[in-house]
TrEMBL record:
PROSITE patterns: RNASE_H_1 (PS50879). One of its GO terms (molecular function) is RNA-DNA hybrid ribonuclease activity. Residues 65-195 form the RNase H type-1 domain. It comes from Natronococcus occultus SP4. This is Ribonuclease HI. It holds the Pfam family RVT_3. InterPro entries: RNaseH-like_sf (IPR012337), RNaseH_domain (IPR002156), RNaseH_sf (IPR036397), RnhA-like_halobact (IPR049863). PANTHER family: POLYNUCLEOTIDYL TRANSFERASE, RIBONUCLEASE H-LIKE SUPERFAMILY PROTEIN, RIBONUCLEASE HI.
Length: 197
């Protein structure tokens, strides 16, 4: 449940500018509340709390745009191909901004890694960061996206193009390989999604 410490009047203006209807609060402590896409933002004196299954879009409207973020991604496949899942985390100087995981059906490990990268980049794009530093523990995917390795598989080539297009939305970006222990949160989220299946 994201909690955003902010000027709640300015946050209300941002929501209204984006076409979100803002209603009065339900209690004397609530300043206002607004709902969109399965999530509800509730404002208090100096913070907004977002509840619901899909808080990302509301959260991206409420957070200040710009700035720098770090993204960690991981895909996992049991069987290669086999049941597959993804995990991703967006981190700033304020801590974890967003994270997610999901089962993606049957896929190879490389397909799962690309799916995780693309999903993480789409989430980061919604927050409108200026600078993005992306890290993953698949050296192959990192080097393919950076153009250091060729991609012979047509499906992976298409995913590489999608990842590059998403990265180009940021003023500055980097993509680097890190050992699994540095990527443990995204790795854990991907495996958690697999375990739930």
């Amino acid at each position: 449940m994201p909690v955003i410490e902010c000027n709640v009047d300015a946050a209300r203006d941002r929501l209204e500018d984006a076409g979100v209807t803002v209603d009065a609060g339900n209690t004397e402590h609530e300043r206002w509340r607004a709902s969109r896409d399965g999530a509800t933002a509730v404002a208090y004196d100096d913070k907004v709390v977002i509840q619901g299954e899909t808080p990302r879009k509301l959260e991206s409207l409420l957070r200040e745009s710009g700035g720098r973020a770090h993204v960690y991604f991981d895909g996992a496949s049991r069987g290669n191909p086999g049941p597959a899942a993804i995990g991703w985390v967006i981190v700033t100087g304020d801590g974890i901004v967003a994270e997610g995981n999901d089962r993606i059906g049957t896929a190879t490990n490389n397909q799962a890694e690309y799916a995780a990268l693309i999903t993480a980049l789409e989430a980061a794009a919604e927050y409108d960061y200026d600078e993005l530093h992306v890290r993953g523990d698949s050296e192959l995917i990192v080097k393919q996206v950076r153009g250091e390795y060729d991609t012979n598989n047509p499906e992976l080539r298409e995913r590489r193009v999608t990842a590059r297009e998403l990265l180009s939305r940021f003023d500055e970006w980097s993509l680097e390989y890190v050992p699994r222990e540095v990527n443990d949160r995204a790795d854990g989220l991907a495996n958690e999604a697999l375990d739930q299946g």
